[in-house]
Write a structure and sequence with these properties.
The protein is of the alpha/beta class and 350 residues long. The protein has 2 domains: 6-250, P-loop containing nucleotide triphosphate hydrolases (Rossmann fold); 254-349, Hypothetical Protein Yjia, Chain: A,domain 2 (2-Layer Sandwich), CATH 3.30.1220. The chain contains 10 helices and 13 strands. The strands form 2 sheets. A 7-stranded parallel sheet has the order 3-2-4-1-5-6-7, with helices on both faces. The protein is globular. Residues 258-337 form the CobW C-terminal domain.
Length: 350
């Protein structure tokens, strides 16, 4: 099934780092380019102040009064469903709260992609460079660890507020983030000013390759929130400083497979048990040729689990595989082989 999927981008970054500043610029760019962006805005408070900065004609869904990664699972999926159904956007930006753990959001979006025509394209993390530097030199507490996690999950990293840093200090922050995430492309920005074709290219690259999604197993295990952090905003100085650094390939990928055929459950289990170790997470909704029920399939930390389900509405047989630098072709070829075997067995049984 080759349905055009809505590209989803997660905007991550600590409180006040410049996410909304980036969002408004991205919306202007994509709107002018004739695309239809939509936004899911998550705020800890009950009022969406940042939403005021987004043009009223841009479809927006608000998740207020809590952090997406702590609130009840499914809220984000519902918001995605409503936007996709009611507004038919080309792309969706999810602006998380500054205290959100991106791994949880990645998980919810990939869950939603099993049921909806959406596809997570990238995690873009905006870093308050002066704040990160200060924390690295002083407290290294919860906020610091959360920033580290947000940086590790990114495909694209903006070292923002570079107008507030001297060159040497900037180099220190640069070394720090590259140590945590050597795969993301890193860009120095002032007021989150970035060449938007970089975001578009993440998109274009993914037309040919599996979708690029930032993330580290390590980061998942260290899940921590910095809800006690303070929100320090710096005054603007306006000095333009925009350096571009190496553009490396995104390291974490998701491959989505739509099944044309029910497969044999035992053969599928065997396939999963032999997945390359670079694939560390998979999930799906499947029909098997040898069972009457459909199953929700989960695979994490090399453990698999199958639970009977009756999905609401029309849901295709689909599985998503998430991992680092694995070959999408190997996974696809093995699954196509399983599907072909079902057909052969059905014919020979006649
Ligand atoms: N000096 C300076 N200020 C900036 C820069 N980028 C953003 N700001 C300011 O920083 C403040 C926070 O920016 P936002 O874009 O609202 O940050 P945010 O990440 O959306 O903030 P939260 O919604 O609280 O998480 C605003 O006052 C911006 O004008 C920058 O590069 N330099």
């Amino acid at each position: 099934m080759s349905q055009k999927r809505v590209a989803v981008y997660i905007l991550s970054g600590f409180l006040g780092s410049g996410k909304t500043t980036l969002l408004t610029k991205a919306i202007d760019y994509f709107t002018e380019a004739g695309r239809k962006p939509a936004v899911i805005m998550n705020e800890i408070g009950e009022v969406n102040l940042d939403g005021q900065l987004v043009a009223s004609e841009v479809p927006m869904s608000e998740l207020l009064g809590g952090c997406i990664c702590c609130s009840s699972r499914g809220d984000l999926g519902l918001a995605l469903k409503d936007l996709v159904t009611d507004e038919q956007p080309n792309l969706i930006f999810i602006e998380s709260t500054g205290i959100a753990n991106p791994m949880e959001i990645i998980d919810e979006v990939t869950d939603a992609s099993l049921l909806l025509p959406v596809e997570l394209k990238a995690v873009i993390t905006v870093v308050d460079a002066p704040q990160l530097l200060e924390l690295s030199r002083t407290s290294r507490g919860k906020t610091y660890r959360l920033m580290q996690e947000q940086i590790r999950c990114a495909n694209l990293l903006l070292l923002n507020k570079t107008d507030l840093l001297q060159t040497e200090a900037l180099q220190e922050v640069d070394a720090l983030v590259r140590d945590w995430n050597s795969y993301a492309s890193v860009h120095y920005t002032v007021f989150s000013q970035i060449d938007m074709t970089l975001i578009e290219n993440l998109d274009a690259e993914d037309e040919r390759q599996p979708s690029a999604v930032g993330g580290h197993e390590e980061a998942h295990q260290e899940h921590e929130h910095g809800h006690d952090a303070d929100d320090e905003h710096h005054p603007g100085h306006g000095r333009e400083e925009h350096h571009e650094h190496h553009h490396s390939h995104s390291h974490v990928m998701a491959y989505t497979h739509f099944f044309e055929q029910a497969v044999d459950s035992h053969a599928f289990e065997e396939f999963v048990s032999k997945l390359p170790q670079e694939v560390y997470r998979a999930k799906g909704i499947l029909s098997f040729s040898d069972t009457s029920s459909r199953f929700l399939f989960q695979y994490a930390y090399r453990e698999m689990d199958f639970v009977k389900i009756t999905p609401k509405g029309v849901v295709p047989d689909v599985a998503v595989f998430i991992g680092e630098n694995f070959s999408k072709d190997v996974v696809r070829t093995a699954l196509l082989k399983l599907e072909a075997e079902t057909t052969v067995n059905a014919v020979s049984a006649e």
